Amino acid sequence: MEYVAIAISLAALVISLLARRDTKRQADAAVRDVALAELQREEDQTAKRSADVSAHTTRAGGDPVLVVCNSGRAVARRVAVAIEVPIGDRGAPPIMDLDRFPCDLAPGADVTVGLMLLFGTAERLQISVTWTDELGPHDFSGLLPVP
Question: What is the value of pTM for the model shown?
Fold first, then answer.
């Protein structure tokens, strides 16, 4: 009888320890889930206040164009564009009308600027785009092919 009582006590102790370990594991998982949800909420709030402006060159109706677009979720204010021929490249930059800049770009909006290519126009352009959103000033720069 005495051995049966000891065996039952040991079994109860093992079950209690396993249950406690499982409870701790669940509590740790809950804390991780809450922390992850908070991080995602903060990232979402930041994204709502952030503009994402970029530029690319393409052809529209056969004519070469520069497209500056805002793929972010906030308005890009005072968008400005500067274009140069990269150091070491030959040729002149294309002729373009940058009178539309600086401008504001709503989320999902773009500005298209025609490029007039002359004989001897450079094959690549170094472009710099600057703007401000709710999070402050930003810039995009890249090397773009002349289409």
Answer: 0.66
